[in-house]
Give the backbone structure.
Amino acid sequence: MKHFILFLGFIFLFLFVSHVNKNQSLLTGDQKPVIKVFAYSSFTSKWGPGPQLKTLFEQKCNCIIEFVEGSDSGILLQRLKVEGQKLGADLVVGFDQFDLQKATVEMSWRALDFSKIDADSQIKAAMKNEYFVPYDWGVLSFVARKSSGISMTLSLDDLMQTQFASKIALQDPRTSSVGLQFLMWVLKVKGEEEGFEYIKKMMKQVHSYSPSWSTAYGLFKSEQVDIVLSYVTSPLFHQIEEKNSDFVALEMIEPQPLQVEFAGIPSFCGNCEKAEEFINLMMSPEGQKILMEKNYMLPVLKNVRTGTPFDSVKVPFRLLEIEFPSLTQVESILVKWSEIRREASL
Amino acid sequence: MLVAFFESIKYSGHLVPISFLRIFVGYYYLQNFISKFGGDFLVRPRVAEMISQNLTSSQAPEWLKWVLNTYMVAHWQGFAFTLLALELAVAVSYIIGYVVRPIALIAVMTTLLMIYLSPAATQDFLKVLLATHFAFAWVGAGRCLGIDYYFFKRVRGIWW
């Protein structure tokens, strides 16, 4: 009995002391403002740019960066709309050009001044809004293995050749922004009517429409397909991380689409100035280098690439203009794509 | 004490599988404790929410419902602290095999309370856990691979 009472007493005392101790350290922590950053999971993960930017920022700002994670930008926006104000989001990172219209319609944002940013000429068009700062960008292309003997220059029509039958990995445009980019690319290049005819034929040509970029890329990596829709910087990843130079981004005859990632500050932000400072860090040469090296995307600032392996990335001369399609436009295109998909699977 | 710890395998070897289960359950409780302590269990009225959500459909006796509604919801901090302390007590006791019998009886009571307070989906698991605690109390699961064996050798009694 004595043992039992002493044991229980010790446990209660231990928990009490630990709890008081935890509260005190929290109180000390409370003196520093907490900046809540909503971001997608690959940004906040340990191999993403988030942790490094956080460490760098916390060293200077006497504040704490707290990441709130969403699996992708669509879910991020949904979560922000439902519980953003309650959670107190100060900054949102990870929208692409397809999300911007939706984000602007569904929420109000703080105006930002980024006129002083010396941006790469190819993405100047992405600076035309006043709420969202572009922080990195990439050019989409098909990626293949050099050893597969595929021609290094292709047109969209070449993808219909029999050698590519069931050997192309694409992403589902309903769930993946890369997949949506491909759909918009085809429609832009070929026009709506011919574009959807092309998509119809493409249904028979693709191996599968994966729900995400990573699943499609997984099919390519496991050699189930010969080419995959990805970024022109993807081969560089294999070169740096795996010391494998067998991968190549194919040059397309048609102008290639751009994907730009944006950050914005919701109008209900609690630490708005600090959030702006965090954006400034992301847009500084130091921050841009971290984003480039961790995200394997191209920096927005000029000259950041110089002297790095990213300098060797061949950015296609002909690029599609960045467009910000409206919500209804995207929805009607997706409805049509879904119909074609349904017919093809019957 | 260390000699007695290993000596217990020789004299109560038939209890080794039970001890394995005891340590496993202890580890499960420790994980639960860590996630609750690290989270907001003690600072937000999670217990009060649990009571108000599940008690109406619960099969708990009326007097218990009254006590929980009247006192525990109002004093949720104390209630949450006690529940968490008991969870830690079960974890430590089961892992090191100390005062396992009385702690297992306390675990039986807290698990029974959790059955009344939990949604239907988790009740089956809690019922199995309840039977496990009861079995530990019955056999004195700390007598093998546990400190209880050391005391059991010196002071015989129902506590070990």
